[in-house]
Amino acid sequence: xxxxxxxxxxxxxxxxxxxxxxxxxxxxxxxxxxxxxxxxxxxxxxxxxxxxxxxxxxxxxxxxxxxxxxxxxxxxxxxxxxxxxxxxxxxxxxxxxxxxxxxxxxxxxxxxxxxxxxxxxxxxxxxxxxxxxxxxxxxxxxxxxxxxxxxxxxxxxxxxxxxxxxxxxxxxxxxxxxxxxxxxxxxxxxxxxxxxxxxxxxxxxxxxxxxxxxxxxxxxxxxxxxxxxxxxxxxxxxxxxxxxxxxxxxxxxxxxxxxxxxxxxxxxxxxxxxxxxxxxxxxxxxxxxxxxxxxxxxxxxxxxxxxxxxxxxxxxxxxxxxxxxxxxxxxxxxxxxxxxxxxxxxxxxxxxxxxxxxxxxxxxxxxxxxxxxxxxxxxxxxxxxxxxxxxxxxxxxxxxxxxxxxxxxxxxxxxxxxxxxxxxxxxxxxxxxxxxxxxxxxxxxxxxxxxxxxxxxxxxxxxxxxxxxxxxxxxxxxxxxxxxxxxxxx
Length: 490
Hints:
single chain, mainly alpha, about 70% helix, about 0% strand
């Protein structure tokens, strides 16, 4: 491209802040991660105390064997359409995923989704991870120094706030610093998790593990299993807000796709299985409670503190994409605000939520499944747009043009096909499974909710986009003289 993305060339690069953290497509020399690097990032994301908590929460519903099946099925389903919706396009074009959402939802539509669904989801995860750090540190303090800090004490909040401050420090220095930490964290997490699994096998009989009853199941065994599958599918799709913007930093499609799916799936499953096994044998789904008696006062404390620090690096990684999305979605409003202050602004609500650790833990499963309802519908619309209606082609200049100069402006800056798809897809999810009341439609026992919500979202998007835009030549769904399609990778 002789002129850098036409009008977008006015956004000059000024060091790392604009090259690594900006919205322009990354050049090949600016892509810093190979497959090994990205695998480390994903392993560090996947193995943190939240993964053990997911396994422990699964143990509330099903036993060990059914739990493994539910975790494999659920994560595999959620990750499949999440990766198609986020990783492929961002890696190919080197563009963070929220800029690539403009053809699907329109510039204003993307802003609406970012400041509602995405922001609430990532703030919730950030707060939960920080609270887990607080609980881990207080448990170690109780064991080592004889203190008596409860799981809902003020000290949990204090250490959670410290975790948020450290996360902000790492995040404010950009993805390069995040990657450097993950090179050390990822191998350590693998060793720790394998050790915990071996330790569990040596200290617990297989018979006791296989016959252990779930902690708090419902009367219907089928419902228990499908709820566990859906919960884990929600965990899989919950990676959506972060993966695209991280994947664009990879050098090749292979370096992005396999580490995304394999790294997240395998690492998550290993940690979840350990968490589920410990919960079934020790009777508690909270890893900050069982890890000390599980690993011993010295080794258990070391492991717990190490995984607590991994939570901090996980927080930095997930917030990176979200803050980047906030900057892009705000238009000119936040474009001149320094990266470090944007990051600080993001952490305000998680810091407030850190004062309510009991509430965050009690609502964990509800939070995961409810956010999954909207993210699944979003993914369905994105897949339908990029793979079916555009055949993996977008007009890069139009992504950065504003108002009527862009083929992706639509009427009022909103692609109503995309917004309608999210609403209908999420409504269908809540119709067959309401995570607030736990009411389910008979269909839920056979098809769960996340995958159908994604499929419904995709179908609704295809129909509405064809009716409202494609047939009228709006939205650049077909070849147009004014907006040539660009397949060239930046």
